[in-house]
Amino acid sequence: GQQVMQIPQYQHVQEGEDFTTYCNSSTTLSNIQWYKQRPGGHPVFLIQLVKSGEVKKQKRLTFQFGEAKKNSSLHITATQTTDVGTYFCASNAGGTSYGKLTFGQGTILTVHP
Amino acid sequence: KAGVTQTPRYLIKTRGQQVTLSCSPISGHRSVSWYQQTPGQGLQFLFEYFSETQRNKGNFPGRFSGRQFSNSRSEMNVSTLELGDSALYLCASSWPRTADTQYFGPGTRLTVL
After folding, report:
1. Would the pLDDT of B33 be above 60?
2. Of A48, B21, B25, B99, most Cβ neighbours within 10 A?
3. Cβ contacts of A103 on chain B, cutoff 8 Å
4. By CB neighbour count within 10 A (0-12 exposed, 13-18 middle, 19+ buried), where does B88 fall?
């Protein structure tokens, strides 16, 4: 089955610094999704990428899907304390498997004011 | 629209007991997926139900089971609880037209003593 590896496991930054988390797979992914989970909360969908080389932006967040569809990244510019949480990448096999997400281990982001 | 709701929010059980968790999806959503979240294993897919049928299944023992009702509400059951079943159990629902976006509920925190 699909497996996605996510690094780093932890990231501590000063407010205003940039942050990047990476997802890698040994197999070609149908898609990649990103979720954010605040401390004590539940995962919240951020975005989905499906095309090779796709880049999408949401304000200070930039999401990329690799050309080979085997890796993805989430980059946050000028972090704020509201960015604190765990960021997960996830993927499904497409088709009727859209309800079965395989998650990366997550990157826990701490932002020091 | 109301979000995904899960009951109960917290549960304490002892080894050997069984437990039933409930999930009410967002109105109109027909797919309900269940995930187990633990610090060591991260987010792991349990199973997914669509139109009262189990459509996808993860790699969990048969002690973990679920069902879905005609109104799309879903329940999961864990029999013969083990200490290692202590986890946050999350359900997520999705709508056919936005199939890849999963909306998570707040989760049920299960503690097995």
Report:
1. yes
2. B25
3. 35, 42-44
4. middle
Q: Is A85 on the interface with B (CB under 8 A)?
A: no
Model confidence pLDDT, tens digit, residues A25-49: 999 999 999 999 999 999 999 999 9
Residue of chain A with shortest Cα separation from B92: A99
Predicted local confidence at residue B95, as pLDDT = 78
Q: What is the pLDDT of residues A57-71, one digit of tens each?
A: 999 999 999 999 999
| Percent of chain A's residues with pLDDT above 90 | 88
pLDDT score of B22: 98
Position A96 scores a pLDDT of: 75
Nearest CB neighbour to A99, from listed B48, B105, B106: B48
Contacts of B100 in chain A (CB under 8 A): 31, 33, 48, 92, 98
Shortest CA gap A65–chain B (Å): 16
Measured CA distances, A23 to A41, A48, B99 (Å): 22, 13, 22
Query: A34 to chain B, minimum CA–CA distance in Å?
Result: 10
Instruction: Specify whether the backbone of A50 is left (phi greater than 0), alpha (psi in -120 to 50) or beta.
Output: alpha
Give the pair of three-digit tokens for residue A17. 């610094």
